[in-house]
Amino acid sequence: MYLKNILLNQFKNHAKVQFDFSPEINCFLGINGSGKTNLLDAIHYLCLTKSAFNAQDSQNIQHEGSFFSIKGEFERNDKTMAVHCVLEEGKKKQLSLNGKAYERMSDHIGLIPVVLIAPDDTTLIRDGSEERRKFFDSMLCQLDKKYLQQLIQYQHALKQRNALIKAFNEQAYFDKLQIEPYDRQLVKLAKEIFKARDAFNESFEPKLQEHYGTISGDRERVKIHYESDCRDEGFEAIFLNNHKKDILLKRTGLGIHKDDYRFEIDGHPIKKFGSQGQQKSFVIALKLAQFQSFLDNKKEKPILLLDDVFDKLDDLRISKLMGLVAKGDFGQIFMTDARPERSKNILDDIPADKSFFEIQPTLILD
């Protein structure tokens, strides 16, 4: 499977651009601010229905524009899949496949697997637990439709329960009968989501360790500890006896929305004891393990997006990554670079079909 072409209209700094792609390696070249990363983000939209960088869809409409449109044609088993994403100001985002609109965006998730390696990936290590949950949830949602629906249901029930708890706090009032349905639903869903996360982590961790060993030269041992309230056999009883504390804090304090993934190197937290190079190696290994998980489960190579990797990685890590590219371990690749000659030199010895695109700034931003 690969992306044949893309057409952007009023998407970020691109007024109107169209590209036809190689099924193997595609490199966007241009100065910083020209919109190279925005092109990767447009591909991300077609695969996952959302931006990899902006939480609000409206922020991706070109300045002074009233809408954005992204169209792309994918080739899979000699069949074309036309995906179209459009957002008009003040209206709901629309996504269609071969001209037929989706009723739910979630129905598209998992159809076109994608992996993004970006300069800010080390936030997975440095930031709080939410970033790590989002990373693993994104993988599981692409691999398992049931998991995706359970997660959506959990988040909806959690929002409703939190609103009820806040009302109890403000009114100095508590009604066990009112909160009981949300308690039952959250406990049931939490147990199911925990089992899925725990099982996935068991299969994911060996892939991480293998790729980290390749990148680092097997100098250290890495590990992931999946931490969850649900691991406690008495979770349900503890959850149901936590009403007073929840009402005091005005939110649900226990559940899978508090889960975390603790990353270790040689038995120590990599956040505190890992060097910058070790942290970079770890996040690259995470993304390569993500790629491997998609390949193993879907029997299809995901699209790989590499944002500014030549500028942010040292020569050793670039060499290891390009070695995997040269072996043909990946499918279609999109990458960005601000230095055209560097990219062409690095890719010159790789026996693959390559396309280079010079990206010119189309909009001066304030």
Total of helices: 12
State the helicity in percent bands. Answer: 40-55%
Main structural class: alpha/beta
Count of domain modules: 2
In whole angstroms, the N-to-C terminal distance is: 39 Å
- CATH first level of the largest domain: Alpha Beta
Question: How many extended strands?
Answer: 14
CATH superfamily of the largest domain: P-loop containing nucleotide triphosphate hydrolases
Low-confidence regions = none
Describe the global form: globular
Q: Major β-sheet, in short?
A: 6 strands, antiparallel
Strand order across the biggest sheet? Answer: 2-1-4-5-6-7
CATH topology of the largest domain: Rossmann fold
The helix/strand series, from N terminus to C terminus, equals EEEHEEEEEHHHHEHHEEHHEHHEHE
Task: Write up what this structure looks like.
- It is built from 12 helices and 14 strands.
- It has 366 residues and is an alpha/beta fold.
- A 6-stranded antiparallel β-sheet has the order 2-1-4-5-6-7, covered by helices on one side. It has a 5-stranded parallel β-sheet with strand order 8-12-13-3-14, with helices on both faces.
- The two termini are 39 Å apart.
Short description:
This protein is an alpha/beta fold and 366 residues long. Helices cover 45% and strands 22% of the residues.
Features:
2 domains, globular, six-stranded antiparallel beta sheet, Rossmann fold, five-stranded parallel beta sheet, 366 residues, Glutathione S-transferase Yfyf (Class Pi), Chain A, domain 2, single chain, 45% helix, alpha/beta
Q: Topology, please?
A:
Elements: E1 2-11, E2 14-20, E3 25-29, H1 36-48, E4 67-76, E5 79-88, E6 94-97, E7 100-101, E8 114-117, H2 123-126, H3 129-143, H4 145-171, H5 176-216, E9 222-227, H6 235-240, H7 243-249, E10 260-265, E11 268-269, H8 270-273, H9 276-298, E12 303-306, H10 309-312, H11 315-326, E13 333-337, H12 340-348, E14 354-358
Parallel strand pairs: 3-13, 3-14, 8-12, 12-13
Antiparallel strand pairs: 1-2, 1-4, 4-5, 5-6, 6-7, 9-10, 10-11
